[in-house]
Amino acid sequence: MKNKYVFAGILLAMITAVSAAVIHFTTITEEPHEEREGALEVVTSFYPMYIAAENVIGDITDIHLTNMTRPQTGCLHDYQLSPEDMQTLSGADAFIINGGGIESFLDTVLKNYPDLPVITASDGIAMLEVKTFGISGPEADMDKGHDHGDRNPHVWMDVSKYMQEVDNIAKGLASLDPAHADQYRQNADRYCEKLEPLQTEAQEITRDAGQTNIIIFHDSFAYFADAYGLQVADVIELEEDNTLSAGQLAHLMQVIQEKEVKMLFVEKQYSTKVAEAVAKESGTRVYVLDSLVTGDGDPDSYIRGMEENLAVLREAL
Ligand SMILES: [Zn+2]
C-alpha cells in the first residue's frame, strides 16, 4: 500500500518535470523572428540603429525588437534585400532607419509596405557633404565604393549627432506607442547621460590637436574628424579588396606631402592592406577605427566601440 503511494508520487513528480520541460521548451523555441501576439514589432535596418533602439526600448516588456540585417552586415552600401528581410518587415509595426540614403532599398520597402510607419533617426540632423575632392577626374566615376548621393549619412559617428538620433527614435516610438511614451523618454535620457562622457573625453584628447590633417578610408570617419577638430585632407573609398591605381597612388602621395599628412585612418571592418602599403611608401602611420556598424548586440557596444576609437585617437595625437 505504502509503495503504491510512493510510486504515484514519483510518477506525479515525473509528469511535473516533463511538463515543465515542455513548457520551457515551448518558451525557448519562440525565436525572435516569430511574431508575438499583441507585442509591438519594431524592426531596425542595421546595427547602429538596433543598438540605439535597444537602449530606448530598454526593459519595456511588450515591445519586440528585430534587426533586419545581421550584426556583421556592416554599412548598408549596395545592400540587396533578401526574401527573409521582406518577411521580417511584413510583420513590422515600425521600421527604424538611419536615413540620408544609406538604406538605398527604402523605395522597394515602401512600395511593398506603403502603410509601414518609418522612423528616420537622422531627421533634422545637419549632414556633411560627401567629399570627393581627393580622387578627381575619370577615376572618380570609377570609384563606386559609396553611392549615398551628395550627403554623408554616417551621422552616428559623431556622438552628439548620435544622441539626436536616439532622441528621434524615442519620439518616433512614443508617437506610435503613446502608452510607453514616458518610458521611451526616460530610457533615451538615461542612455544619453551614459554617452555624455565620450564627449568630454574627446574634448580632452583633441584640445591640443591643432591643425592635424588626416586621410580617411571610409567617409564615416568624416564625422569623427569633424567632431574632434581633425582636418580631412582626402577620402579614399575602396571596394572590398581593391587596390589603388597608379594614378590614385600618385595623387595620394601628393596630398600627403602637400598637406603634411601623418595619419591614415582605416576601418576595422575592411582590409588595411592598401593603407599599410601607402603608409610604408609615405612614412605615415595607419590607425584602425571602428565605424560601429558591427558588434555583438550588447546595448553598450556603441559606447565600448567609441571608447576604443578615442583610445586610438589619443595614441595618434
Ligand atoms: Zn558607409
TrEMBL record:
Q: Which domain of life is it from?
A: Bacteria
Say which family it is in. Belongs to the bacterial solute-binding protein 9 family.
Query: Keywords of this protein's UniProt record, alphabetized?
Result: Signal, Transport
- Name of the featured protein: Metal ABC transporter substrate-binding protein
Which first-to-last residue range defines the signal peptide?
1-20
Q: Which Pfam families match?
A: ZnuA
